[in-house]
Amino acid sequence: MSRLKLAAALLAGALAATCWWGWLMLDHSGQDAQALVEEQGRQEAREQSQIVVRDTPAPTEPPLYYQADERWGGLPYATADSCVAESGCGLCCAAMAASYLTGEEITPPVLLNLVGNRCIDGGVNHMGRFCEEMQDLYGIEYRDLWTLEDAESHLRDGWMLFAGMEGAVYEGGKEYGGHVLLIWKCDEEGVYIRDPDDPNLQSPISWERFRAIEWGSYFYAIREGE
User: Fold this and answer.
1) By three-state DSSP, how is residue 49 classified?
2) Residue 4 CB-half CA count within 13 A
3) Which DSSP state fits 191?
4) Could you tell me which CATH number the domain at 84-223 has?
5) What is the pTM of this model?
6) Which 8-state DSSP code applies to residue 141?
7) Domain ranges within the chain, ordered by starting residue
8) Does residue 123 contact residue 79 with C-beta atoms inside 8 Å?
9) Exposed/middle/buried for 183, CB within 10 Å: 0-12, 13-18, 19+?
């Protein structure tokens, strides 16, 4: 009789252990499923946060950022004794191009805060370095060009240009010893230029005048990255 009681007790213990183990596995399975659902939710949230939705139309032309604008003209730039108003032609051109290509408001002080003086070489703007920085920051594509013919070909293909020049952009315009322009478009009327030091340049210049400008030794073609 005692052996029967012992067997019954062992059987009851085994059943209890089996039930407990089954409950434990079920509980863990439920927890794992819940954790999976929560992780999927977090992943979807991360993916949604990476989607950029523009609630305003893409700009139809670059903004006008002038070196001497009172909002940033006095900011130190290029050298210890210079400022954006004096030396910021390249910075303003880069900010105009970045704003146009990204659809964001990237003003000269915003860009300056990101790149500092890394795009300065010997006290002057180095547009190749600006291109490198803009590629890293905004995914912008760029190419080095060395002839006016190549620059014109890229412009006709829809690229924008950073260009160094001397003299005047148009007849009767300001004379520069060294200056950077943003050339952003062309059509049958001529070439459209943003001059960060001349607010009077609003209309396109003719192709004849464009070819007559005393261009420097380089052009950089830029466009939105693919």
Assistant:
1) helix
2) 1
3) E
4) 3.90.70.10
5) 0.75
6) E
7) 1-51, 84-223
8) yes
9) buried
Query: Tokens representing 158?
Result: 């829809």
**Total Cβ atoms within 10 A of residue 151:** 22
> What are the residues facing 193 on neighbouring strands?
183
- For residues 9-46, one letter each, b for 16 or more C-beta atoms within 10 angstroms of the residue's C-beta and e for the rest, the string is eeeeeeeeeeeeeeeeeeeeeeeeeeeeeeeeeeeeee
DSSP secondary structure, 103-119, as one string = SS---HHHHHHHHTTTT
DSSP sequence for 80-136? TT-BHHHH-HHHHHHHHHHHHHHSS---HHHHHHHHTTTTEETTEE-HHHHHHHHHH
- Cα separations (Å) of 28 from 14, 18, 21, 24, 34? 21, 15, 10, 6, 10
Q: Which amino acid is at 53?
A: V
Q: d(Cα 76, Cα 74) in Å, to the nearest integer? A: 6
Write out pLDDT tens, residues 115-152: 999 999 999 999 999 999 999 999 999 999 999 999 99
Q: How far apart are CA 29 and CA 59, in angstroms?
A: 53
Q: Could you report the per-residue pLDDT of 156-182, keeping only the tens digit for each?
A: 999 999 999 999 999 889 999 999 999
Q: Which of 149, 155, 151 is nearest to 164 (CA)?
A: 151
Positive or negative: CA dihedral 135, 138, 139, 145: negative
